Predict the structure.
Amino acid sequence: MIIRNGLIFRGKEGFVEDTLYIRDGLFAETAGGDVIDAGGCYVIPGLVDIHFHGAMGYDLCDGRPEAVAAIAEYELANGVTSICPATMTLDKDRLTRICQSAAQYRADAADHPAGARLMGIHLEGPFIAPEKKGAQNPAYIVPPSVELLDMLLDESRGLVKLITVAPEIVPAMSFIPEAVRRGVHVSIGHTACDYDTASRAIELGADHLTHTCNAMPPLSHRAPGPVGAGYVAENVMAEVICDGIHVHPAMVKGLLRLYGEDRVIFISDSMRAAGMPDGNYDLGGLNVHVSGPRAKLADGTIAGSVSNLMQCVRQAVSMGISLETAVTCATINPARSIGIHNQVGSLDIGKYADCVLLDQTTLEIRQVLR
């Protein structure tokens, strides 16, 4: 297959007039076959969402392969070709079923050509701080446990790629290097920790911030907290929910300047109401009311989003962020952050031929290739 006449995203080079070649499902140096005319389109890598919970009335925490399939189909239709959905803070048995169902979906991936690639699982709980639980259920919060992580790694057949941890919760400081040794990226999040505690966690191997600014102390000139610790460390990547609600546009742009565009990851953090009408929905056993673009618990706490990652990219552009930067933060960076950048995240030769054609005027999707 050949894709020509479009503006191709080439990372640091930005958009260039170029031709893409696809052979045997991978980007190649040359190819024949069908020709796609991408005139009037940007051609970008398929998006990579490493932190979201569900869509179309389904949630990863439903613990059923068919739920994963429905979510993956919605994501692919919206230009997200690789996914690493997140769990919630739940009991061991439910977390086990969630991991088993994801592993089953992955094993049967050939049966789901209309769905995004399941590249991993993000354990967003249960190793979090009660005072920064956000929309998580405090009844299931437990201390970090290597034994539980090992069990979930086994039940998921190695799909756990990312785990959120509040580093002030004992024994997080001994847990973090053990998780890293197992190939799991540790993200500081749902935490009340100070700068020194976050810095120690980073020294031990944490390399990620979970939905930066949300469910953590704010950045302050005398108490820089985890946001400041992540910036100073230079190897930490910062997730940002770029839906225009969770983080003010000025802060999104500020984080891009502070961390640099190579270290910011756009996420959607969508819950099962994404793609659905207003109403009441479940999130980790808690009731969430959705009205327009906002999802809230009864006490007013923001409870995930109803935006998909492509909508977040458009939202970023509406904030005055360049399309090149927005695409970087939704493709290359998330793929790098969980170690799948050798397979997806860019249009480089040898990677999966996942790409999206966007109208150059409206940024609406013209075509998705997986």
Q: What stands out?
A: The chain is about 30% helix and 25% strand. The mean pLDDT is 95.
